Amino acid sequence: MPKMTLTRLAEMRAQREPIVMVTAYDYPEARAAERAGVDMVLVGDSGAQVKLGYDSTVRVSVDEMIMLASAVHRGTESAFLVCDLPFGSIEVSDAQAVETAVRFVREAGVDAVKLEGGNETKSSRIRAIVAAGIPVVGHVGLTPQTATALGGLRAQGRTEESARRVVREALAVQEAGACAMVIEAVPTEIVDAVLPQLRVPVIGIGAGPSDGQVLVLQDLLGVTEGRTAAFVKRYGSIGEASTEAIAAYAAEVRSGAFPAAEHQYGAGEEAVRAAREAAGAASGEND
Ligand code: KIV
After folding, report:
1. Which fold has domain 6-215?
2. What does the alpha-carbon distance between residue 128 and residue 122 come to, in Å, rounded to a whole number?
3. What residues does ligand 1 touch, defined as CB less than 6 Å away?
């Protein structure tokens, strides 16, 4: 498949061809996404939780995200590769944001970076990074990095004030120069109200059909433990399948059924004799 470009993504939007995005955090996941033919791969800071076991996305560092993104880059050929800029890596100044974005392009090889929010500060960060020649994907609605300020991990745009904020921030992100945006956990009617004013592809997650969809890979594979958000659909039971396979291996090791003869190497008589002699000599030396 040819490499996905921003021009092609814009065409897909114009032709109402749904854009498929999925998250990935390592080489095998990137290969699987690539083989499945997705259009965009996101190295989300959700990896903090689903891959690294932190209790929140704000815990992950730039170095950790660069390691994840580099592995995904090595497994990605045609998909457009986006990586989240983690919390704390852009908050100080526009200059800090540009420096961080440059690291993701140079060290991890991403096509674009994603950042959360659309207030004045975040719009300024988007403008600065775009001015440095790096495409930026925006992210409005529920923005997990600042969930505490939003009243927790909950749907946005459900009150008059919140709906106005979602629309204002989506427009601001576009005006700042974002090449696309994710809208997360916002009622479909609110997204539909702003969509006609947007010229860039809008990827929804719990935000109605939009121009495309993104899901966290572990959620769709059925790896995530416990409750997931209402917008998640499971397409597999990989978590259960993994546990069953590991439990079967453990049982066979404990019963002696594994390794069977076919999982063991054989040696010629001479090698066996030599090994026995050497072991015998060693046991004599140790007496
Ligand atoms: O971090 C992430 O995985 C994301 C998606 C949920 C859009 O930002």
Report:
1. TIM Barrel (3.20.20)
2. 10
3. 23, 42, 44-46, 84, 139, 182, 184, 205, 214, 216
